[in-house]
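pinned: reference chain
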Amino acid sequence: MRNLLQLIVRYSNFLLLLGLEVVAFIFVVRGNRYQQVAASGAANAVTGSIQLMQDNVNSYFRLRADNAQLLEENAKLNAEIMHLLNMQENDTNVCRAVYESSTSRFRSNSEGQGAYVSSDLDYTFIPAHVIAYSNDRHHNYLTLNKGSRDGITPDMGVIGKDGIVGVVQTVSTHFSVVAPVIHEGIYISSMISKNNYVATLHWHVPDIRHAELEDVARHVNVAVGDTIVTSGLSAIFPANMPVGVVSKLSLGEGDSYYDIDVQLATDFHSLRTVHILQFAHRNELDSIANR
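pinned: its structure tokens
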């Protein structure tokens, strides 16, 4: 203890100078917008690098579970192939139509970066890995291993294998932070699939498997089990992407709107890989909307 005190006394001037520099740096960053942005970008880059290292270690220990998931997905694909073969035996024309529809919808992008372009929707699907996440806060987040060098910008939609995931919020060179559906500040334009009635999906703490479908009037035909999809009324998500299924609803005698609980399609406990949606005509759309 005595040696520690002697060390502090010996270097007291240096420690005082260091403390003052830290305080000055904090005041500069808080008082200037440019410095705030620069500091935020640097912090995102450092944090992202650390989280990527942690994810690499965790991925090693998840290999068995990931392999099991791949085997399950392969089994589903094989089942679909068998189904198509059966369709071919029963109706050659139907099988050909299904094949031509599926092959014309997606193509590799010209840059060869592992992204796939939907020719009919003008969306590029950029694959990414989740390297860090939270699911126990009011404002949860996901960190992805793709950033501005991969063409990622804020306000891009993110989807998983089962449905929508969230919206990109901030981007650094190599990483991006996503506000998922399970974030109190996110509102998703959705619709009831069977009648195309547009409503708003909004999540409330703490259940990460469910959200609320708001603004559904009492005259609307809605029932438990109905499928909820994206409305397509923004450039973030195309229409008819899975959002969830109505799991519970109620309507009081004097209420004008339903209370609707939706079981989300995406399981945020097991989310590991996603696709970021890049809309080819976003700048054109934004320029028209801002006029």
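why pinned: The domain at 128-291 is CATH 2.40.10.340 (Thrombin, subunit H). Confidence is low (pLDDT under 50) at residues 92-108.
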